[in-house]
Amino acid sequence: MGKLIKFDHVNAHGDFEKLLSQYGIDYSKKGAQLRALCPLHEDTNPSLSVALEAEGDTLANTFHCFGCHQSGSIIDFAAHLDGGTLREAAEIVAELSGCGLAPAKTPKPAKASKRPAKDAKGSKREKPRPQTDKAAEGHSAPSERASEAKQSNQPLKFELKLDGAHPYALERVGQWGWFQFGIGVLDAASRSMMAGRCCVPIHNAEGDLIAYAGRHIGEDPDAQKWLLPPGFQKQQTLFNLHRVAGAEQVVLVEGFFDVVRLAQFGIPAVACMGTAVSDTQVALLKAANVRRVVLAFDGDDEGQAAVPAALSVLTRSLFTRLGALPVGEDPGSADEMVLRQLIA
Ligand SMILES: [Zn+2]
């Protein structure tokens, strides 16, 4: 049932800025060049470069990373991010760019296809803009950080194909983790940044998929344990909120697997994905009509040290109780009896 895809067309007309925004990747723009933290490796200063227009040997609408040395077209980049095939990546790019999979049939298509991608959209006008105008676009200027943040955590336009029967997934979260939460392992040969990781789909309060968190599986002590997409705003989301909306009381925990374990016993839980609770997260709970919160951070030093700050944010507007766990225990590993006492 394959639709006709003209890869040249999509590569030429794909909108790199929209693609980066879609994946929550913060970028700065200088002339026809974009710079960003590279999502294909663990990047600490922006080594991803995107050329919107051809220059020298560089083709238009291509990327190159000076850190991991990967490069290619906009479709290649989308395929790296989403881990799917080039066809799927081309569909993603075409849809979010609104350029179609192939040139529209017009009476005189001859010249239109040779035109550089951006000309039609008037990027020439954008190029020499002064700093103040750039700020108005929401890129690069520090004063606009807040508005950038508001634009992140947008619904994803793709889904990763995960393996819920992978031994690691089964051991960590059981079949329940797959059926209820869609947790599974992404093929290590995938080109996604989450390749080989145990991935947890994250949704917003409306139930739209907005990101994947990836847990490192192997023994490598240097690997980052949990990976989130660049630009993802943890503090604007509560993991699992869309599934517990309507519950009068929820248990607030640190991590994804804590939520899964509590859910196995029918205990509604959400995770703040760390040890910080934000005002936005409190507002989300209130909007979901949650009235009471049981705070159950991990029983380790880090979790317990974060309790006072979390309580002070929560108690400002929600009835909050501290759910005590035995020292050293966390909700992801505690006995059923201990967990049930949290909500008793
Ligand atoms: Zn890179």
UniProtKB/TrEMBL annotation:
Residues 116-137 have a biased composition (Basic and acidic residues). One of its GO terms (molecular function) is DNA-directed RNA polymerase activity. GO terms for cellular component: cytoplasm; DNA-directed RNA polymerase complex; primosome complex. Keywords: DNA replication, DNA-directed RNA polymerase, Metal-binding, Nucleotidyltransferase, Primosome, Transcription, Transferase, Zinc, Zinc-finger. GO terms for biological process: DNA replication, synthesis of primer. CDD domains: TOPRIM_DnaG_primases. It comes from the Bacteria. The keyword Transferase applies. SMART domains: TOPRIM, ZnF_CHCC. The keyword ATP-binding does not apply. Pfam families: Toprim_2 (PF13155), Zn_ribbon_DnaG (PF01807). InterPro entries: DNA_primase_Znf_CHC2, DnaG_primase, TOPRIM_DnaG_bac, TOPRIM_dom, Znf_CHC2. Residues 103-154 are annotated as: Disordered. Residues 248-330 form the Toprim domain. SUPFAM superfamilies: DNA primase core, Zinc beta-ribbon. This is Toprim domain-containing protein. It comes from Sulfitobacter aestuariivivens.
